[in-house]
Amino acid sequence: MASFSLEHLPVAVVGAGRSGRAALRLLHEEGASVRLLEKSPENMPEDFSAWLSERHIPVFGGEHVPAYFEGVELVIPSPAAAKAVIEPLLPLRADGTKAEIMAETELAWRLLEGEPVVGVTGTSGKTTTTSIISAMLKAHGLCVFTGGNIGVPLSEYVLARRRGEKKADVIVLELSSFQLQTCSTLRPRVGVLLNISENHLDFHKDMEEYTEAKMRLFVRQTEEDTAILSPTLRHLPEKFGMKARVLFLTPGARPFPETRLIGAHNQSNAEAAFLAASAFGVTKEEAARAMREFTPIAHRLEHVADIAGVQYVNDSKCTTIEALKVALCAFERPVILLAGGKFKGGDVEGMKPLLAKHVRAVVLYGASREHFEPAWKDTVPVTWDETMDEALARARSLAREGDAVLLAPATSSYDQYRNYMERGGHFRTLVLKMKEERP
C-alpha cells in the first residue's frame, strides 16, 4: 500500500452513525484536522459526544450548508449521504476543483498493511454470501475480519490493529453501491457481484449509475485478481473493460446440498463463496463442513420453528418485490404469505404467476393494502389485518400440515417498526410464544 498521510489534513465527516464514528476516531488518530457534520447531534451516543468534547472536535448541527465545508480537503460521508447531495454543497477551491468525497471503506483500505480483501456486492444476497465466505476461510484455519456494510466498519479493524490486535489473513467486506461509488483505489484480491436488479433509485439517478457504482469493485483489479459474477451479467466484463480473471456462477448448481439454508438462491450464494474462498486454499471438504455448520442469518429466510407440521420462516429483510420473488422460489411446500408495510414500488401485478404456483393464501397487515389486495385477490385468497399479531393468528388458522408460514413483507418496515430487524424480531417472538403455548 502506498503511503497515505492524513497529518493536519482538514477533513469533514458527514454523519455520526457507526461508520462515521469509526472514521472520525481513525482520522483523529492519524493526525487529521477533523470536523463532524451531524444533523441531530443531540441523538449521538453520550460516550462519543464526551470523546468529541474532550478533544475539542467541532460539531456542526442541523442541515448541511456550504459554510460547513469551507477549507475542507476531504469529505467522508455516511453511507446514506448521497454523493449527488453532498457535492453541490462543496465550495470551489482556488484551482476550480472541490474536496474529494471518499467512502469510509476507501479511507480504511488506504491504511491497511497489505491484507488481501474479498469484496462482495449485489442487489441481494450480500450478507449471506459474505458470511459464508468468512465461515469457509475460518474452516481452513485462517484469521478473518468480516465487515463493511454487514455492520462493522473497516475503520474499526484498522483502529484495532493500531491497538496491537492480530492482523487478519483475509478481510471479507460486504460493499453497497453507496460505499463503492466513492471508492477510487480499492482493489480486492477477489470481487464478487451476485446480481443487479432495480433498487436504491432514490439514491442513484438511474440504473446506469447504480450499475456503474457496483462495477467500481473491479476497476482496480489486475490480471492477478479474480472476479466472480452471476451468469446473467456476462455482458459486463467487456463493457467495463475488466482485467481480472472472470468466473461465472453455474445456473442451477447445488454444490452444497447439506445445509440449513433455504432455497436455490442460497446454493448460488454458496457456490460464489466457495469460488472466492478457494482462491485462499479452501478445499471442497472444508467448504462443505462450513456449510453444514453455517447458521442462517437472522431475518433472511430464517427458520424460526415447526409447529404442528407447519414451518414458520422469517424473511423480514425481504423489502422489495424482487426479494419476494426469490423468497417464494425457495419453497417447495405451499406458502401462507405475510406481507405489508411501507411500499417501495415494484411490479405487483407481475407476481401473479409465482403466487399461483407457490402461495395458498396472502395475509396482509399494516400499510400498503391498497397496492397488494386489488392486484392479487383474483389469483389467491387475500385477507388484511391491522397488526402482525392479528395477521399471524389468521395465518396459523389457515395453515395446514406441510405448509410454510412466511414473513416476506416486500416492503420497508417504517409503517409500524423502526427497521426490518425489529419487525423480524417481533415475528420471531410471536412464533416462539405460539410454540410454547401449543398443548
UniProtKB/TrEMBL annotation:
Highest taxon of source: Bacteria
One Pfam family of this chain: Mur_ligase_M
Coiled coil: none
EC assignment: 6.3.2.9
Subcellular location: Cytoplasm
Catalyzed reaction equations: UDP-N-acetyl-alpha-D-muramoyl-L-alanine + D-glutamate + ATP = UDP-N-acetyl-alpha-D-muramoyl-L-alanyl-D-glutamate + ADP + phosphate + H(+)
Keyword Cytoplasm: yes
Pathway(s): Cell wall biogenesis; peptidoglycan biosynthesis
A GO cellular component entry from the record: cytoplasm
Mur ligase central domain segment(s): 120-229
Keywords, alphabetical: ATP-binding, Cell cycle, Cell division, Cell shape, Cell wall biogenesis/degradation, Cytoplasm, Ligase, Nucleotide-binding, Peptidoglycan synthesis
Residues where ATP binds: 122-128
Any single biological process term in GO: cell division
GO molecular function: ATP binding; UDP-N-acetylmuramoylalanine-D-glutamate ligase activity
Keyword flag Cell cycle: yes
Mur ligase C-terminal domain span: 299-410
Family: Belongs to the MurCDEF family.
Job of this protein: Cell wall formation. Catalyzes the addition of glutamate to the nucleotide precursor UDP-N-acetylmuramoyl-L-alanine (UMA).
Protein name in UniProt: UDP-N-acetylmuramoylalanine--D-glutamate ligase
Organism (species): Mailhella massiliensis
Gene: murD
